[in-house]
Specification:
Elements (H helix, E strand, L loop, with lengths): L1 E4 L5 H11 L25 E4 L5 E14 L3 E13 L8 H15 L4 E5 L3 H4 L5 E2 L2 E8 L25 E6 L4 H12 L10 H6 L12 E6 L5 E10 L2 E9 L2 H12 L6 E7 L5 H4 L7 E7 L1 E5 L2 H7 L6 E9 L4 E10 L2 E6 L6 E4 H7 L6 H6 L4 E2 L4 H9 L12
Parallel strand pairs: 4-5, 11-12, 15-18
Antiparallel strand pairs: 1-2, 2-3, 3-4, 5-14, 6-14, 7-12, 7-13, 8-9, 9-10, 10-11, 15-16, 16-17, 18-19
Length: 410
């Protein structure tokens, strides 16, 4: 078996092989090659697995993203995608060989983080990836969508905290591409766990709505000066209003957009498709039980390719020191590191000291963005704490300034 990099000439073979692996057929691209999810593939970052007689049997790809870490640090991250093996060649080591080859290529590029969305949860843990962000669906019946009166008040003469002085404008997807791109870019720079959406994704209509050209209404929020500072992308079908995503950096703007869709006439329910697990909207409803949570699931999985570089890249929010004993069985590597945090910055160096925590590299990926508490994995039997108090310290150290959330699909 040969694993080789692809070129632009391999696009059709790559796409056909990938779709065959999942038992599907490719859509027909729009004129100009856009409008389908694979139109943004970076062919110089993709791999084909070939048999000895030259038949393609497996695919793996990667996108060039920027990931926002706790502390609003922006770092490059490889977004692994388009991974598939033909049914005729599964359980023969093809996937493992491609994953090992890909990780070596990412390191050769100087990248220290890799991320993906897992089609099946059991697959990627064995390759060193851990679930680092979570998302859920929130469904609110229209007749139970009334908002409670806020109990907190501002100081005399000042507006209450979180009050909104802007306005909402209704547009169609085709009318506001630049607005969506600009608002999303501002949002992802402040949201831990968020990924960049390169301009070519928007230009080609790659991915899911509102990136794709699928018909959508867009509720654009503008601040008091008329500057767009948030949007909600939605569609209505059979009495259900489905919100693809709500994007803003401001809680008051999110509330204004939520009010807009929840007060929509001639719908029976509103579904927020990508809802941050710790968002306060349910508390803002007069009936707390009105918001029904479902599809509570993992989203972004993270893998560290260089432990010291990754740990020193993110921001930290308390001082402390831990010795981490990290095992990477897939790559046959093992390292012990002294993590020292002072004034929001970390130093991470090899050490022979006694470990505080022993963990798999996939566990380190899970806690890296602050979305999974180390104590949870200790209680689950995945991470070993070697002395009392270590779990509490690790939870405090690895927490994020904001709960990480990713809604970009790739």
């Amino acid at each position: 078996m040969e694993i080789r990099s692809t070129t632009d000439e391999d696009l059709d073979v790559f796409v056909d092989t990938l779709h065959a692996a999942f038992g599907r057929f490719p859509e027909t691209p729009a004129e100009g090659g856009g409008g389908v999810w694979w139109s943004a593939l970076e062919m110089d970052r993709n791999l084909l697995s070939m048999t000895a007689d030259g038949r393609p049997v497996g695919t793996a790809g990667a996108y060039s993203f920027t990931l926002t870490l706790p502390g609003e640090t922006l770092v490059p991250a490889a977004g692994v995608t388009a991974v598939g093996v033909l049914p005729t060649h599964r359980r023969q080591g093809v996937l493992s060989a491609m994953m090992r080859h890909q990780l070596a290529e990412l390191r050769a590029r100087g990248e220290f983080l890799s991320v993906l969305l897992a089609s099946e949860a059991p697959i990627y843990g064995r390759f060193g990836y851990g679930p680092a962000t979570y998302t859920q669906r929130l469904t609110v019946p229209r007749h139970q969508a009334a908002f409670a009166l806020p109990r907190a008040h501002g100081t005399a003469g000042a507006p209450a905290s979180g009050s909104d002085t802007g306005s909402v404008e209704l547009l169609r997807r085709a009318e506001c591409g630049e607005i969506l791109e600009e608002v999303y870019d501002r949002y992802r720079r402040t949201q831990p766990g968020a990924l960049s959406r390169p301009h070519r994704w928007w230009a080609l209509g790659a991915g899911q709505p509102p990136l794709s050209p699928a018909p959508r209404y867009i509720a654009v929020h503008r601040d008091a000066d008329g500057v767009p500072d948030g949007y909600a992308s939605y569609s209505v079908e059979s009495g259900t209003l489905t919100v693809d995503e709500t994007i803003t950096t401001d809680d008051a703007v999110f509330t204004a957009l939520a009010r807009f869709v929840l007060e929509h006439d001639l719908v029976t329910q509103v579904v927020f498709k990508h809802f941050p697990p710790e968002h306060p909207l349910r508390w803002q409803l007069a009936d707390f039980r009105a918001g029904e949570v479902s599809d509570d699931t993992d989203w972004l999985w993270v893998r560290l390719l260089d432990v010291p570089r990754a740990l020193t890249a993110r921001g930290w929010f308390m001082d402390g020191e831990l010795v981490l004993d990290v095992d990477d069985p897939f790559l046959g590597e093992h390292g012990r590191y002294l993590l020292t945090v002072r004034d929001g910055k970390a130093d991470c160096v090899p050490t022979d000291g006694e470990p505080d925590l022993s963990l798999d590299v996939s566990d380190l990926g899970a806690v890296y963005l602050g979305g999974t508490a180390p104590s949870t994995l200790i209680r689950a039997g995945h991470i070993r704490a070697h002395r009392p108090g270590t779990a509490t310290l690790a939870d405090a150290l690895f927490r994020a300034d904001r709960s990480p959330h990713c809604l970009h699909w790739f």
